[in-house]
Amino acid sequence: DKNFSNTDDLSEKSLVSQDELMTETLAKVLMKQKKYVKALEAYRILSLKYPEKNSLFANQIKKIQMLKK
């Protein structure tokens, strides 16, 4: 029907959480780009997402904090 107009905001429904898109590769790229704040956030998200790798991510977080100083 040509007279039908959709007033729903579909863009809001299609948003994906940043947590879902976070990967180890992205975190490594952020580190190499020296985007330490974003890299810290990435590793914190990953540590919650993958608790079995928590010690690895904790080491990366410490490394980033040292680099920030």
What do these coordinates show?
The chain has 69 residues and is an all-alpha fold. The protein is built from 5 helices and no strands. The longest helix has 15 residues, at 54-68. The radius of gyration is 18 Å and the shape is elongated. The termini are far apart.
For the CA atoms, what is the radius of gyration? 18 Å
Q: State the secondary-structure class.
A: mainly alpha
Helix content: 55-70%
Total count of helical runs of at least 4 residues: 5
Please trace the helix and strand order, writing H or E for each element.
HHHHH
Distance between the termini: 62 Å
Major sheet summary line: none
Strand content: under 5%
Look at the structure and give the mean pLDDT.
84
Assign an overall shape.
Answer: elongated
Name the descriptors:
mainly alpha; 69 residues; 0% strand
Summarize the structure.
This protein has about 70 residues and is mostly helical.
Layout of helices and strands:
Layout: H1 10-13, H2 18-21, H3 24-32, H4 36-49, H5 54-68
Helix pairs in contact: 3-4, 4-5
